[in-house]
Amino acid sequence: MGNVPIGGNSPIVVQSMTKTDTRDIKKTVRQIKLLEKVGCEIIRVAVPDMEAAKALGEIKKRISIPLIADIHFNYKLALEAINQGIDGLRINPGNIGAKWKVKEVITAAKDRKVPIRIGVNAGSLPKDLMEKYGHSTAEAMIESAERQIEILEENNFHDIKVSLKASDVLKTVEAYRLFSQKYDYPLHVGITETGPPPEGVVKSSIGIGMLLSEGIGDTIRVSLTSSPIVEVQVAYEILRALGLRALGIEIISCPTCGRCEVNIKKMVKEVKTALKDIKKHLKVAVMGCAVNGPGEAKEADFGIAGGKGKGILFIKGKIVKTVEEKDLVSSLIEVIKAHSTKKTDKYATLSSGN
Fold first, then answer.
1. Strand (E) or helix (H) holding 324
2. Which position among 9, 54, 231, 257 has the lowest Cβ density within 10 Å, counted as fewest Cβ atoms?
3. Torsions phi, psi of 284, nearest 5?
4. In angstroms, how far is the first alpha carbon of the chain from the final one?
5. What is the pLDDT of residues 56-82, one digit of tens each?
6. In this structure, how many other beta carbons lie within 10 angstroms of the beta carbon of residue 348?
7. Residue closest to 326 by CA, chosen among 298, 302, 345, 306
8. pLDDT tens digit string along 6-60?
9. CA nearest 105: which of 50, 67, 151?
10. Is the pTM for the entire model greater than 0.85?
């Protein structure tokens, strides 16, 4: 997809979708650039009409990540999107219209080397499949995808990616499992219409996490009724939790209890805010007990543990410094920033116990 490899042994790709009016080029580009900063690797935009389609070229010029056009019903929008230089199409060949219209889109995509994602959604299956299966089952979703794959394959088009999304987690997981047993096309994985956080985060984490843990999925999108930036952040947390990819600071912090004598919530917020722009993966612990903190967070690269009036700074579970409570957070941030910018003298001194 553009310069981003998908499938095979490539890393799982994180993508999102803009929540702006695509016709508003300035606003759309601004949102995409913000998403680029937090690690979004592919972006999809809605193309509801020809004005939006004609805006794609200018949007593409101003961004750094591959651009996917999301199109339904009107084949002319797909042709214009391809003409504008987009990197990928998300279409449903079954609703584009007559076969000659589909063939025109496929021919244009093939000429420009534009991959096509077949996007099946449980909420918009063909009527005959709903009648056949009674409701939107995993099998109905797969049959819908198969029909669309056949159209592309009949026209010798194989740069295909497939998604089979539902708002029901278990139905989605079943559909992807069954499909992956029959086909080897790259899969775009997600749970659709999950709602706002925390509900949407939980549904997405369980569904996407289950599939990725089984080796199913090549790209992911967390769909939330929230900022697309949150979608990308949650996606990376899912990948991090599964040991698949890691980006930026990973906070390890205690839930607090009656032994805690410092404001952990405030400290975590300060650390997270101060280190949000660091892209290197580091585990950072913020613990509330100076006695057990280093041991409980011994896998952390850096950490602090608070006590009454004083606390400790530790590196890889080893205590290196006692610090006044008021200076705990600033001491931690100072050491991490020095390390992340390769000013390692202080880090080396501290980690040696001096």
1. strand 318-324
2. 9
3. -125, 125
4. 50
5. 999 999 999 999 999 988 999 999 999
6. 10
7. 306
8. 999 999 999 999 999 999 999 999 999 999 999 999 999 999 999 999 999 999 9
9. 151
10. yes
